[in-house]
Amino acid sequence: MSVHDYHARTLQGKEIPLSDYRDHVLLIVNTASKCGFTPQYRGLQELYEKFHDRHFEILGFPSNQFAHQEPGESEEIEEFCQVNFGVSFPMFEKTDVKGGNAHPLFRHLTEKAPGVLGSKTIKWNFTKFLIDKQGRVVKRYAPQTKPDKIEKDIIKLLEDSSSS
Fold first, then answer.
1. Where are the alpha helices (DSSP H) in 5-39?
2. Which residues carry out catalysis (predicted)?
C-alpha cells in the first residue's frame, strides 16, 4: 500500500482520495493550534509557497491527542491557521494519529517510518512525514525539526522524481 490508497476529510468536510496527490511530493504533518511548536505553521507555509508550483503539497492533520492542544472545531482551526499564519495548504479534519482509533493513514505512516528506537507511535504534535511522488514514505521528522531543515530533502525528491 501507499499513501495514495487512503482518503481523508478536509476541514470543509469534503472526502479527498489521497491519490489526488499522485505525482506530488508530500509533507504530512499532525498539527495543533495551542502547542509550543505551533509557530512552525509559518515555516510550513513558506515551504509550501516555495515549492508548490513544483508539485509539492503539505497536508495538515490537526490532532487533539497531545495535552488537548487542538480543542477547536474545524471552522476555528481553519480561521486560526489563516489569520495567524496565512496557511493556504490543505488542512484536514481533526484526526486521531495514535491509539486504537488512529486514522489508517497514520497507522501506515508510523509503520513505514517508525520513530526513535523503532517506536510505532507519534509522540507529539508536528511530527512530519515526507512522501515521494509514488506515495512511499521516505522519512519521518521529529516535532522539533523545523520546516526549513527539511528543505534539502524536499528538493532532492523533487529533482529525483522529475527525471522518472
1. none
2. 35
Closest CA to 125 of 41, 32, 33, 39: 32
Q: Which residues are catalytic?
A: 35
- The full set of domains in the chain, from first to last, is 3-158 (3.40.30.10)
Angle at alpha carbon of residue 115, lines to 157 and 84, rounded to 5°: 70
- HSE on the CB side for 135, CA within 13 Å? 15
pTM (predicted TM-score) = 0.94
Tally helices (H) and strands (E) across the chain: 4, 6
Query: What pLDDT, on the 0 to 100 scale, is given for residue 38?
Result: 94
CB 27 within 8 A of CB 45: no
CA atoms within 13 A on the CB side of 136: 5
Q: What is the mean pLDDT of residues 33-38?
A: 94
Residue 133: phi, psi to the nearest 5?
-65, -20
**pLDDT band at residue 163 under the 50/70/90 scheme:** very low
Q: Tens digit of pLDDT for each residue in 37-96?
A: 999 999 999 999 999 999 999 999 999 999 999 998 999 999 999 999 999 999 999 999
Q: CA 58, CA 69: separation in Å to the nearest integer?
A: 20
